Structure formats: C-alpha cells, structure tokens
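Dear H.,

Thanks for agreeing to be a second pair of eyes. The structure we're designing against is below in token form, covering all 777 positions.
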C-alpha cells in the first residue's frame, strides 16, 4: 500500500484548485428570476395603462392592476422553487471519504479530496472521483447510476472506477486522477443542470395570442386614443384616457395567464398529496400530451434489487436448502449472496473451509464434514460436458439464461485441492435469479397501452435481460428476451434511428448519449416524449425529453433535472398525473374561450368607436364587473372542476372557432344597444348609455358561460345561477351599481339592455347551430 500524498502536496493542489469541489450555477439568480417575471411585455402594457388610469383620479377603474401582482408572484414563486431544487443538485450521496495521506488513513469531506489522492473504498461506499484501481480485494461496483448496467462489475488492479458508482462487495484503493468538474459523472450532470422551461401548448397558445394582440394594440391603441380625444361625448382628457384604457384592457387576456398558472398550481398541490413532486408548472399538462414514454429498466421498471426467482432441481438431495444457505455466505457478501440468504438463511451444516468468490473463477465453495459444495456460473463450474448429467444441466441453464435470467448452479463434489474445483462434481440444483420488478410497473404499462401511448424500454443492461423484463411488465411488441435490440448495432443517423424505434420497443446496452439521441429521434418524428429514469446515465435524456420523470430514490442529478419526481418511486402515480393534466387542459380550454370572447368584442368595440368618434361604450370598472362575474370567478371554478376528456391537439384553433363568432355577436349587440338608447333619447348621457351596454354584455356573457358549463352538473348550474344573481345585485342595488360601478340605472335602461341581450342569445344559438351543422357535414 502506498503512503499517499503528503500534507504539502495536498496544500499545493488545494491552492491550484485541483479539488473535488463542484461549483456550477445551475439556474438564474434571484434578481434574474424577479426581473424575468416582473418586467414582461404583458406587465409593462398593463402597468402603463394602470398609471394612466391612476392619473385620472378614478381609483375604481384601476382595480385591474392586481392582476400584475398575482401573476408575477406565482411565476416568481414557482421558479424560485425550481431554483432551490437545482442548486441542491449533488451527484454523490456520501459526505465523507477515506484517503491515505502521509501513510495514515484520514476521513475527509468529498469536496476536500484532491487530485492524485489515494482513496480507500469499501462495501457501501460511493466512489467520489475517477481513477485507476491500485489494489482490489474482491472489489465489486454497482455502476447502474452511470451506465444502467444492473450487474455488479468486478474491478481488478488497473481498472478504472468512476464517481457515483457504489461498492457492493470487497474493498480496495484507487488514485483520484480526475476530480470535481472533470469527473465523468460531473460532466454529465453539468450539462443536465442547465435550466430549461417545459414546453406547454396552453402557455404557447396564450403567448401567441398575446403577441398577435400586441400587434393589434400598436395599431388600434393610437387610433382609439385619437378618437376618444376627438369625441364630443368625452369631457376633458380624463374621460378620453379612461375610455382608451377600457378599450385596451378589454383586449388583453390578462386573466387567462393568471388562471392558467393557478390551475397548474392547484394541480401541483393535488399531485403532491399523491407523493408526486411537480417542479415546473406546465409539466402537468405535458404528460397528458405525451404519446411515447421511454422507460429505463434498472431502478424504474425494476427496483434494482436481485431476488431469488426459483430453484430448478437437477438431482435429489434433501440437504439442498442447507447447503445453498451455507455456500452463499461470504465475508464480503455481494448482491447475489444476499438474494440467496434472504430466502435460505438457516443451516445445520458447519463450514470447515471456504474458497471465496473470485471474478476470475466466477464461483465460490464451502467444505463440510462430508462434501464440498460449489456455487457459481454453470459454464465455469460444469466443465465436464462429457458427463450426461452435466451436459443436461448446462443445457437447462443455457435455456433459462436465454430468457434473460441470471443462472447459478449448486454442485456437490469431493477432494478439493486448494482453490481448484472439486472432483466428481454432481449438479444438484440451478439457482435462478431475477431483478425485482416493481409491483406497479405492469398495471401502469397496461394503462398507457390502453391510452394509445407507445412504450420504449431503453437500458444500459444486457439486451436479453431488458427484453425479459419488458415482456414481464407487458410492453407491447416484446414477447421475450430475444425481442430486445443491442444498441451497439443502432445507426447514428437520427432518421434511421427513428425508423428502428418505430418497429422495436426494447433496447439494451444503450449509452447515455444514445438515450439522448433516441429522445431526439422520436421528437423529430413529431412525438411528445416522456423519459423516466433514476441514474446519472438518464439525466441527459430526461433533460431533453418533453417531460422527464425521475424516481424519488434515484440519483439527485435525475431528480433535479426532471419535471416530475415520483417521491416514493411508485409508478402507479403516473396515471394520476395524466388524469390531472387532462383535467387542466380541458378546463383551461373552457376558460380560455370565455376570455377570448371578451377580447374579440373589446377589439370590435374599440375599432367601431374609433371610426364613429364616440365615447367607448364601457368604463374600465364596468369591464372589471363583467370580467369577474362572467369570466374570472366562473372560469376559476371551471378550471378546477373534474373533467375526464382526453387530450386532443389544436387547443387554440378550437377556442378561436367559438370565440370569434360569439365575440362578434356580443360586440354588435353591445354597440347597437349603446347607440339606440342615444338615438331615441339624445339627452341620454354617456354614463346612462354605458349602463345599457353593461346589461347587454352581462346577459350575453352569462349565456356564453352557460354554454361552456355544459353538460350541466348541479355544481355548474349553481355556479351560473350564482353569477346571474350577483350580476343582478351589482346592477340593481344603488350603493353598488352607482357607487362602485358608475351605473345610472332606470327601469327603461335595464329593460332595453335585457331585450338586446335576448337578441344576442338568439343570434349565438343560431351561430352555434350553423357551426355544428357545418362540422357534421
């Protein structure tokens, strides 16, 4: 054993920065997050209009400003939550490691390991850096977090170890030649750490609307302002500014952005109760849109544990159970030994001598008073194939191994010479081992299959094992171990790779870079891809996928980059997330329709009043009343209500096909009512005419709400009725209608508004009937 570095050599490396500390900024700073969520075009536009209204001294008309605070607050809160998660990203779970310095063993923190340190690792330790093995005493590593390979890897002197691997048996020393950001795992994680926002059709559709509306505002805004100043109906600049703000605020779907965020937040709270952590708001919607799910095997479909599947007797011997229990015992137990002793622990036999397991021999033995029992790989133990019994045992072992199972043989012999195989070996039983498949894996696979979602199992493990597990959990197109593809034979071209992915569903020996390429190939074909995983080798693919799902007991790297984390590692929560996403999408579509109807009629009223050079038909506070009672409050309840409608692409198109004609009808009826009352009574003031317009729009908008609430349930009927009652109270109670909403109510004006509203209802039903007839034909 070497003496390791001296104190002076350690100090020199620390001064040069050659330590194991990894300091990478994983997300935006607090200031950047605040600026990104506060200083948006949306907030800037509303803020400018808010300042203009406040300048007029009309505080009632400035209530729409609260939307800026609430929407920015939700965005900041959620991104800060994601930032905290990303900043806690750490590949290694251990806090201290043993290093040899000046000939003595010291315990230091992971970050204090320096380049060229002599590191000592033993069973249960996690490797803190990369480097060559100097000494190995039965050293076995679980590298599944790095490669996806579930089988322990035996390390000899000269072999390379990588940070993140876990020692499952034996012990040894290695030199830390690569530390900190230069390690293999750190390089993978550094790329996976980069912050990115999940793609959302709802958010993208809303942003597209905002951009289009922004262009319209650039044209209509100055025109409306000019017309309001020219209008004889307005008295002073305050009226002109108030009318302009009313028209522009009505054209902005400010509540839609807020409602979408709130719906996502409520979904996140619901899923949190089911042990599912959502790290980005749109991820709930994203999984509902997914049409391909890529599944890692080790730690995802399987628990990563090896279990004893069954024994296949080869010869009668009533001592089999005791001998197997005794033979599996080891001073440095590995996963295989633990799996056997978990089922066969009691033995009345006494061990007189042992030959420990060796990766070169691939067997171990124990000698009792009467026999020597050997446990190991059949091809290494049963070498005398001229013996019919041995030949038959080998054939059975090969047949079972072809099914993707791991097979050992327990044989009985005599006269062992040192560490050589005993003579006259008699095969007693085959020991069949398997990975423990998660109990919820098969039902979840069945759910996705029924929903038309394609499944792809991609793993770094042996292809035959991958195929066997995929078949066991019911992945369509995988009938057994032979149906899996060895990824080393896959093409590098993404189009060619996509063609293979279309025809196959199970892949083994997949590298982290190939997992990433598979996600990209599927996305190139237009698929919405979800990726599940638990190891560092999955991190890059999880980051690139449309939705990354990490297991809660997996690597911190995967948990940090994934949008969804199954905290208890239970697959059964995924259908809950899909159902929640569908509910959000369907309900937000209803709410969006209500908002866009308002945007359409506000735009038409703005253009009409600009051409006619009259005062805008509604005051900002009256638009606030209409928006709250017919859109804001009911849309909130509609957005959180139950809805099992399956996701159908084309959210924005469907919304516009309903909102545009209904908005046109609303605008025509509103402006007609506004002008008629002034034509029949020229002495009617702007405030009195706006009262008629308010009643018309309330009636038509409440009917529109009732359409979106269909099919009616008791709670939906109650919601619409409650909004109608509140509207009546707001209009008819003088202290509210006149004192707050600036209405000048009289029986004739209310009656005129109701009549024109009824006309609007009839026109909307005619439009819907025509649209339905055209759609059917």
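And this is the sequence the design step returned. I haven't edited it by hand at all.
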């Amino acid at each position: 054993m070497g003496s390791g570095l001296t104190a002076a050599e350690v100090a020199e490396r620390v001064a040069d920065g050659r330590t194991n500390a990894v300091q990478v900024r994983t997300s935006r700073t607090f200031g950047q997050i605040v600026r990104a969520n506060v200083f948006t075009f949306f907030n800037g536009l509303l803020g400018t209009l808010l300042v203009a209204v406040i300048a007029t001294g009309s505080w009632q008309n400035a209530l729409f400003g609260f939307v800026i605070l609430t929407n920015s607050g939700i965005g900041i809160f959620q991104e800060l939550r994601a930032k905290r998660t990303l900043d806690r990203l750490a590949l290694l779970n251990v806090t201290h490691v043993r290093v040899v310095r000046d000939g003595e063993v010291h315990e230091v923190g992971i970050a204090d390991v320096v380049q060229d340190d002599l590191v000592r690792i033993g069973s249960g330790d996690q490797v803190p850096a990369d480097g060559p093995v100097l000494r190995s005493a039965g050293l076995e590593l679980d590298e599944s977090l790095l490669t996806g390979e579930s089988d322990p890897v035996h390390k000899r002197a000269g072999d390379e170890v990588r940070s993140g691997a876990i020692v499952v048996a034996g012990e040894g020393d290695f030199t830390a030649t690569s530390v900190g950001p230069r390690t293999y795992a750190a390089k993978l994680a550094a790329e996976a750490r980069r912050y990115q926002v999940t793609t959302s059709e709802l958010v993208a559709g809303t942003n597209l609307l905002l951009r289009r509306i922004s262009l319209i505002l650039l044209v209509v805004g100055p025109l409306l302002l000019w017309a309001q100043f020219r209008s004889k109906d307005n008295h002073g600049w305050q009226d002109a500014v108030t009318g302009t703000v009313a028209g522009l605020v009505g054209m902005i779907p400010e509540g839609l952005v807020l409602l979408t965020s709130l719906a996502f937040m409520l979904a996140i709270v619901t899923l949190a109760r089911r042990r599912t952590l959502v790290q980005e708001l749109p991820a709930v919607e994203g999984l509902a849109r997914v049409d391909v799910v890529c599944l890692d095997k080790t730690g995802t479909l399987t628990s990563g544990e090896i279990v004893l599947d069954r024994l296949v007797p080869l010869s009668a011997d009533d001592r089999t159970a005791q001998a197997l229990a005794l033979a599996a015992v080891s001073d440095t137990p590995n996963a295989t030994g633990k799996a056997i002793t978990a089922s066969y622990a009691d033995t009345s036999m006494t061990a007189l001598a042992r030959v420990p397991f060796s990766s070169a021999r691939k067997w171990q033995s124990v000698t009792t008073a009467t026999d020597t029992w050997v446990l190991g790989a059949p091809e290494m133990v049963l070498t005398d194939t001229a013996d019919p019994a041995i030949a038959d045992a080998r054939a059975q072992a090969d047949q079972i191994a072809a099914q993707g199972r791991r097979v050992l043989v327990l044989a009985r012999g005599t006269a062992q010479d040192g560490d050589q195989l005993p003579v006259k070996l008699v095969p007693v039983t085959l020991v069949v081992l398997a990975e423990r498949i998660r109990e919820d894996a098969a039902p979840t696979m069945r759910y996705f299959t029924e929903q038309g979602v394609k499944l792809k199992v991609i793993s770094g493990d042996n292809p035959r094992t991958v195929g066997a597990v995929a078949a066991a959990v019911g992945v369509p197109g995988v009938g057994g171990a032979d149906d899996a593809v060895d990824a080393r034979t896959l093409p590098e071209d993404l189009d060619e790779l996509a063609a293979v992915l279309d025809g196959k569903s199970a892949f083994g020996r997949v590298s982290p870079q190939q997992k990433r390429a598979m996600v990209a190939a599927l996305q190139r074909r237009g698929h919405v891809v979800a990726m599940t995983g638990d190891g560092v080798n999955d991190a890059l693919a999880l980051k690139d996928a449309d939705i990354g799902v990490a297991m809660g007991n997996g690597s911190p790297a995967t948990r940090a980059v994934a949008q969804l984390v199954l905290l208890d590692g239970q697959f059964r929560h995924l259908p809950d997330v899909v159902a929640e996403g569908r509910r959000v999408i369907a309900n937000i579509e209803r709410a969006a329709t209500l908002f866009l109807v308002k945007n359409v009629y506000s735009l038409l009223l703005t253009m009409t009043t600009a051409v006619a050079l009259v005062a805008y038909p509604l005051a900002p506070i009256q638009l606030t009343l209409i928006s709250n009672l017919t859109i804001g409050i009911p849309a909130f309840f509609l957005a959180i209500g139950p809805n099992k409608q399956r996701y159908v692409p084309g959210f924005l198109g469907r919304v516009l096909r309903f909102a545009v004609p209904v908005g046109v009808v609303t605008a025509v009826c509103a402006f007609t009512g506004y002008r008629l009352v002034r034509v029949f009574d020229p002495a009617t003031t702007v405030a009195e005419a706006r009262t008629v317009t308010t009643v018309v729009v309330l009636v038509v908008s409440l009917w529109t709400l009732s359409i979106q609430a269909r099919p009616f349930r008791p709670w939906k009927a109650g919601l619409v009725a409650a909004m109608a009652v509140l509207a009546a109270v707001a209009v008819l109670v003088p202290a509210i209608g006149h004192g707050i909403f600036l209405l000048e109510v009289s029986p004739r004006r209310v009656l005129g508004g109701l009549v024109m509203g009824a006309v609007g209802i009839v026109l909307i039903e005619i439009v819907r009937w025509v649209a339905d007839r055209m759609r059917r034909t």
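Two observations from my side: DSSP finds 28 helices and 21 strands in the chain. The first strand starts at residue 96 and ends at 101.

Warmly,
E.
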